[in-house]
Amino acid sequence: MLNSVVLAGNLGGDPEIHFSTEGEPIASFNLAFRAGKNKTGWIKVTCFKRLSEICEKHLHKGAKIAVSGVLDHSQWETNEGVKRSAIQMIANNIEFIKTDGRGFEEGKNQDDTPF
């Protein structure tokens, strides 16, 4: 079964950075995307290792990106015994469409960009 997804949209907030128990960086953010005529969908996107560092440095609320990856489904039970589930996207690649230039130094060569 193939599990691959590509979405383009805008970040709903600045990426949040966490660290795994091994100390590896993990970035997550909510991505708004067009889900139909006059509808907006939201999905949580999670990035690991080097991609998370790039997100932390260059992405911000409102940035427009295209992201490819796989979907991940999690299930858990709250302390009150309520069953919950969520679908998130695990990113493999991010293409910058429009950012405010944060994290990019002026005069740098195009070859120095992280993507």
In short:
By secondary structure, the chain is mainly beta. The protein is built from 1 helix and 6 strands.
Task: Explain what the structure shows.
The structure is a single chain. The protein is mainly beta and about 120 residues long. The chain has a single domain (about 5-100), classed as Beta Barrel (OB fold (Dihydrolipoamide Acetyltransferase, E2P)), CATH 2.40.50.140. It is about 10% helix and about 55% strand. It is built from one helix and six strands. The protein has a five-stranded mixed beta barrel with strand order 1-3-4-6-5. A hairpin with a 2-residue loop joins strand 3 (about 25-35) and strand 4 (about 40-50). The radius of gyration is 16 Å and the shape is globular. Residues about 105-115 have low confidence and may be disordered.
Whole-Å distance between the termini? 29 Å
Mean pLDDT over the full residue set: 87
CATH homologous superfamily annotation: Nucleic acid-binding proteins
CATH architecture: Beta Barrel
Low-confidence stretches: 107-115
Helicity range: under 10%
Cross-sheet strand order for the largest sheet? 1-3-4-6-5
User: What is the ordering of alpha helices and beta strands?
Assistant: EEEEHEE
Radius of gyration: 16 Å
CATH domain class: Mainly Beta
- Biggest sheet descriptor: 5 strands, mixed, barrel
Q: How many strands in all?
A: 6
Classify the beta-strand content into a percent band.
over 45%
Helical segment count? 1
**Any idea of the CATH topology?**
OB fold (Dihydrolipoamide Acetyltransferase, E2P)
The secondary-structure class comes to mainly beta
What's the domain count?
1
Shape: globular
